[in-house]
Amino acid sequence: MARGRDIFAAAKPLISGTVWLLQRLPRGLRYGLLAVFRGTPGLIGIGLRYICVRSLARSCGDNVFIGAYTFLTYLENCDIGDHVSIREFCDIGALGGLSIGSNVSIASGTVILTTEHDYRQSTTLIRDAPTLLKPTMIEEDVWIGSQVGITAGVTIGRGSVIGLGAVVTKSIPAYSIAVGVPARVIDQRSSE
Predict the structure, then answer these.
(1) Rounded to an integer, what distance in angstroms lies between the CA atom of residue 37 and that of residue 52?
(2) Strand pairing of 184-188 and 176-179?
(3) Domain spans of the chain?
(4) Is 117 a catalytic residue?
(5) Order of strands, edge to edge, in the sheet holding 111-112?
(6) How far, in whole angstroms, is CA 162 from its chain's centroid?
(7) CATH class given for the domain over 4-188
(8) Using one digit for the tens of pLDDT, what is the confidence trace for 64-76?
(9) Angle, alpha carbons 94-91-112 (nearest 5°)
(10) Which of 117, 133, 163, 174 is catalytic?
């Protein structure tokens, strides 16, 4: 069975041409197409979602897998590296700025935030409080387990592993293994 990288390499000329054409359409229409293809199964769905994401993102590398029923917003503020896997049912909002390095695996059901309400203003309803934009960064070679929550403004260091169901509220150093709510570092991976 062919690896995704091999299939992508074979289809790259067709993909690049389609992305170029799609970029001539209004942004709202491209987001509409992404929504239409959100649940499309198989290789066709993977390809169509990738083409839409590549046409919308500030930058998007090669061989990026976007799983079915994943919600991606404000991609114009998002940089995605090469060989990234974003599995099914993830919810990622990039309004505050998001960087995902190369060779990152994000398991299903993960939520990544780049904004939060200024909830400290007690004289204002929380829903009416100003939105704070906080860039979030996931460095290269990171594995994020299923059902992880990543709050706005954190950095997950290169080579780290975030365990199932963790809630990352503070930055995680490189080559760390972090678990829990809130996530805490329980071990280090070798950087060699």
Answers:
(1) 9
(2) antiparallel
(3) 4-188
(4) yes
(5) 71-73, 91-93, 111-112, 149-150, 167-168
(6) 14
(7) mainly beta
(8) 999 999 999 999 9
(9) 55
(10) 117
